[in-house]
């Protein structure tokens, strides 16, 4: 028994039912044992039996894009830059503060159960070279002042609120970079979660700070984020929005089933007028895609209008979180 009085171990079949009841339309993946379980889940996926419309990172090229975008090098470059900052999010605990009826409310804290989603590094928050009297705010440094680092790199990661709900979950979360093929499993650079800076339950988005103690990784990631934002600014300044809103293509980058990074392409089929003004699209997603960036081609004038993926109603009716601006 755990200290809060609930059994931490349940037979797998009961746990699977609990997970099913807990997640609704949101698309996280779960793992109760070794991570090789994730590939089995992908093989026996009951949403998309073939996954043939998902494109592995190594196979993505400009010919994968809709015809009118194939010659646009700046669009291809932006998607590549977004691929390089997209992360697999792993959350090892679930908050008891999730409200009743909300995704994973019934799960409670259950040792050994990992949740998987996606996200992207949106900005660099603190450079590794910054010098002041503070120490790194990560759980490891905070709980052991004797080894607390005086230099660290800090980043903001965007994901869905149902993936990282609050500070407790942030402190039990990590982000893995460059998980681009199954060969990368266990070898990826990792960021450690700290706290939720901003989030909204109805809009289904979270901005979470993550840190690294690795100076090389910090500098490399700062450069990648800066490159992505420069490309976005360049496209925004062109105001390249001459496309019918109902047929605008979307590109989603995510980690379906908590496995390697994939790209999926589709079109926006519906868009809500009231909050959350989420978009519904045909681009394929699966459990584990929650939180991945949804790039809407032709909407570059809205600089930060890249919502995380949120949920799914059918194979071709997948939808985003609120495409918020600030
Ligand atoms: Zn699937
Ligand atoms: Zn630290």
UniProtKB/TrEMBL annotation:
Matching entries from Pfam families are given as: Trypsin_2
Protein name, per record? Uncharacterized protein
* UniProt keyword list: Signal
Specify the signal sequence span: 1-24
**SUPFAM superfamilies hit by this protein:** Trypsin-like serine proteases
């Amino acid at each position: 028994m755990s200290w809060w009085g609930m059994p931490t171990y349940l037979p797998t079949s009961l746990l699977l039912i609990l997970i099913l009841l807990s997640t609704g339309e949101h698309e996280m993946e779960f793992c109760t044992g070794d991570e090789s379980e994730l590939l089995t889940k992908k093989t026996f996926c009951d949403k998309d039996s073939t996954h043939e419309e998902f494109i592995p990172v190594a196979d993505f090229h400009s010919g994968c894009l809709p015809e009118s975008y194939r010659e646009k090098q700046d669009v291809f470059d932006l998607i590549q830059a977004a691929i390089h900052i997209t992360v697999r999010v792993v959350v090892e605990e679930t908050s008891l503060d999730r409200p009743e009826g909300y995704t994973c409310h019934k799960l409670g804290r259950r040792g050994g159960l990992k949740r998987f989603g996606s996200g992207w590094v949106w900005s660099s928050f603190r450079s590794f070279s910054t010098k002041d009297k503070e120490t790194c705010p990560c759980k490891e440094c905070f709980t052991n002042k004797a080894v607390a680092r005086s230099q660290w790199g800090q980043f903001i990661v965007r994901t869905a609120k149902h993936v990282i709900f609050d500070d407790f979950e942030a402190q039990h979360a990590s982000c893995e970079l460059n998980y681009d093929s199954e060969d990368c499993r266990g070898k990826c650079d990792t960021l450690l979660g700290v706290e939720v800076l901003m989030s909204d339950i109805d809009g289904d988005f979270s901005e979470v700070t993550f840190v690294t103690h690795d100076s090389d990784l910090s500098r490399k990631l700062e450069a990648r984020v800066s490159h992505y934002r420069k490309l976005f600014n360049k496209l925004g300044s062109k105001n390249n929005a001459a496309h019918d809103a109902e047929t605008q293509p979307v590109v989603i980058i995510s980690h379906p089933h908590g496995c390697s990074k994939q790209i999926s392409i589709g079109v926006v089929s519906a868009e809500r007028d009231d909050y959350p003004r989420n978009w519904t699209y045909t681009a394929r997603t699966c459990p584990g895609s929650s939180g991945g960036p949804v790039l809407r081609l032709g909407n570059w004038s809205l600089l930060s209008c890249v919502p995380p993926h949120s949920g799914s109603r059918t194979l071709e009716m997948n939808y985003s979180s609120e495409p918020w601006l600030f």
